[in-house]
Amino acid sequence: MKNAFVFYTALVIVVLKTPVVFCFQADLKQSQVNNDLVVFIKDHLGKSSYGNYMGGKKVGWDTDEIKFAKLNGVEVVSQVSESYFKALFGGNKTEVSERTEVFYSLAGKGDIILINSFHLENGVKKTRELSLQKSGFTLVTTTQNRKDEKKVSKPKENLSMQLELASWLKSKRIKGDTFDCFSTSVEEDDLNVPTRYIYKGKKNIQAQGANLMLHEVDQETHGALFYSLLENNGRLYYGRMGKIIEYRLESNDVAKKLDDSLVDLIQISAVTLDKKLGDPVKVKSLKLSFVGEDAFDVPQSHRQIISKGKDGSLVMEIKRDFVLKTSVPLLLDEKKRSLAPSISSPSDNPKVVGLAIKIVGEASSDFEKASRLVKWIFANLEKTMAKNSDNALDVLDKKAGDCTEHTLLFVTLARALGIPAREVGGIAYMAGEKSPKMGWHAWAEFHDGKQWITADPTWNQILVDGTHIKFSEGSTDLKWLNILGGLTLKVIDFQKD
Questions:
Q1: Among positive and negative, which fits the CA dihedral 194, 114, 346, 336?
Q2: pLDDT for 142-157, tens place per residue?
Q3: Are 114 and 131 in contact (CB under 8 A)?
Q4: 0.85 surpassed by pTM
């Protein structure tokens, strides 16, 4: 029997306090200060604290502080974000903390000039520094075993964009109005993350004996909707993602007081079924009725067919993957995207290329090469949720991880061999549970020139079983978060070997 490995990278971004080191080389001079930005920042000075809840249980906290600071003798704006998170993953305790400081210029549009981030997860440290060099911006990532340096594009986010967002929020808005901007993430392959604010309306609540008017806004990033209640100056009062993740504005002392008992995120996020399926490897096909509280477009493929039931619910028919009789070639842009090296998937790294060639040996077909990659990863990576990595080289260093690490390594090695590959995610049957459940899971797809074929290196499967239900394609497709905790499945029928 196999266990489902949940992928939660998108669920928790957490931070810890650490000294900031300034080592960027670009000349920083006191240019003409933008007084509009100074007035805007003065209205936002101070610290806000949030309790981080999952399923109603507090699992962590977040703080955000905006202040004026000096950087190489020049006055700038500093935004410091800190977080802490502690929970169980399948019975294993995970403790994560991080501190990120972003420095903005007070001149011009208030561009980002430096970001320092320190991440600590289960005792393993990682630092990132995005700095302005004479030749442009450079991102340096340092782990215990390696230091990586990469030229990156200029961050599109700036203080003027934040000022425009605050002005947009205060002006007369109607339901459906949108504001497009960018946020910056040093943890993603593209640090410029497009974000859309979708206005929903105004809401009055009673807080501490006073009437508080808040703006209801959905923040959309990579397809994920973060429902938020914002104060008139744009400060977050309350936030929710899916049905189980919440952020509540609290005093600093209250925010940092966690529940004594740890929450197991695998159990709290799992989707219950009304029938047991037994060993998932033997499941050839599975027919389910699907009810989600929010509209959600489930991807369709040769093995995953969606139709409408008589009661208006969706009916999903999932089959064990199989080889098609006719070819479905890749479009050029899709092929290029599925072969491209990146920060997280450095498929052009000599160490990665050499290992991939060694693993596949004399295999001639892409199918056989992928099969050998699956077997090697399954045999050589420890199955644990306590050793997370966001870079394939880190996975090779640790030789451990959950489904996301197994999948990331497979995708990187496949691309190194010239095989288009991508991460996909969704849910799969959790064997060995007392009550039948589907757990959130990640696996891969590769294209052999004829079709997309599934590969699950965590479970040692090529052509995955009939319980793998795909909800996302690619590591930045986060629409699945919208149905987290709000999904109902009922078994109509299933067939086994």
A1: positive
A2: 988 788 898 999 999 9
A3: yes
A4: yes
